[in-house]
Design a protein that fits this description.
The protein has 387 residues and is mainly β. It is built from four helices and 28 strands. α1 packs parallel to α2. Belongs to the glycosyl hydrolase 35 family.
Length: 387
């Protein structure tokens, strides 16, 4: 209506961030200037977001503006209240403006940030390889075998998120060379490629990596471990199916034989009863590995919120006392730390489980710190080096 009522239903004090981008920031001066302009004409205002929070577990989504753009785990959004619910300088600046227009709000106490816990280093030990017989039995869900070029998606298997393993035998050919070219036009979203159990490389929807040289003989087992990186949740591409959505081509020939499917929903990680396997630092050429460790907190003290720093690790997920903190990917950033709510911690022993997909550091540790790291400064070319 030309005369009102006036309403800004989505006033953005910040913005969301995708992996590989710089953290989106909007200055407090810009926010309060626009807020003043709206209040001056008696407009109604709804902040989106005033508090963003966290995309725990597998709930981080994605966009499709310029290719496929998966969201980081944090939904801090540079909002007036931080990911941990703390007031920021932007919050106080907004409040100052509101108190000018609505003096009665001055009576409301001003909040302060909660104290955080810098709980230090946690040592981790490898307990099982995801693609080993034990890993398949304890973590995998066997689906029906299929034959032909059209492979089932996550959705066809009623699997919401996690990983899905497709396996087939490379058929006989007249080519005596071990060097082949694998091509998947629609990998949704990230594919870890193995031949006879050895990592060959990765395909990536995000980075547009659709082909890969393959060192494999006739009769070798080809394993395609597909990771869902988050569903598109805005725009015209909402039907964002996950898995292999196109033919799998080897030297331009469709692999249309028998395929086995094994799902890893990763809803619950079982107890491996203290087993330890050999630590292989660097690239995990035999497949993803689950690591375990314990965070010991003082008895008689209420745990504080904290932030888990996985610097040095590759890409994966963390569970604390059974709660999935979400995805980490510090080599790509900009998010490094994972917000850890104090209500998910307890005095005494807290169980930490890590599923690492790509590579592990020399020292198998992660650190609980008292400040978030969401603005990793990445050197030029870092995206390419860490695809």
């Amino acid at each position: 209506m030309p005369t009102g009522p006036l309403m800004n239903s989505e006033f953005y004090p910040g913005w969301l961030t995708h992996w590989g981008e710089d953290m989106h920031r909007v200055s407090k001066d810009a926010v309060v200037s626009t807020l003043r302009d709206m209040l001056a004409i008696n407009a109604n205002v709804n902040f989106y977001m005033f508090f963003g929070g966290t995309n725990f577990e597998f709930t981080a989504g994605a966009n499709s503006g310029v290719g496929y753009q998966p969201d980081i785990t944090s939904y801090d959004y540079d909002a007036p209240l931080s990911e941990a619910g703390d007031p920021t300088p932007k919050y106080y600046a907004i409040r100052d403006v509101l108190e000018e227009y609505y003096p009665e709000t001055k009576k409301i106490p001003r909040p302060v940030a909660s104290e955080k816990g810098a709980y230090g280093v946690v040592s981790l030990k490898p307990v099982v390889e995801l693609l080993s017989p034990e890993g398949r039995d304890s973590l995998g869900t066997r689906y029906r075998d299929v034959a032909g070029a059209k492979l089932p998606t996550f959705e066809a298997m009623r699997q919401r998120a996690g990983l899905l393993l497709y396996e087939t035998k490379i058929p006989a050919s007249n080519d005596t060379s071990l060097s082949r070219l694998l091509h998947v036009a629609k990998p949704h979203d990230r594919v870890y490629v193995y031949a006879d159990g050895k990592l060959q490389g990765m395909l990536s929807r995000m980075h547009g990596l659709l082909s890969l040289p393959l060192d494999a003989r006739d009769g070798a087992t080809l394993s395609l471990l597909v990771e869902s990186q988050g569903r598109i949740n805005f725009g015209s591409l909402l039907h964002d199916f996950k898995g292999i959505l196109s033919d799998v081509l080897l030297d331009s020939v469709t692999l249309a034989g028998d395929w086995t499917l094994l799902g890893y929903p990763l809803q619950n990680i079982p107890d491996f009863n203290g087993t330890i396997i050999e630590h292989k630092e660097g690239s995990l050429n035999d497949g993803p590995v689950i690591y375990e460790g314990n965070l010991i907190l003082p008895e008689g003290q209420e745990p504080k919120d904290s932030f888990l720093n996985p610097t040095g690790w590759g890409k994966g997920y963390v569970w604390i006392n059974g709660h999935n903190l979400g995805r980490y990917w510090p080599s790509v950033g900009p998010q490094v730390t994972l917000y850890t709510p104090g209500v998910w911690l307890k005095p005494g022993k807290n169980q930490i489980r890590v599923l690492e997909l790509q590579s592990s550091p020399v020292g198998l540790t992660m650190t609980f710190v008292d400040e978030p790291i969401l603005d990793l400064q990445r050197p030029l070319g870092n995206d390419k080096d860490n695809k």
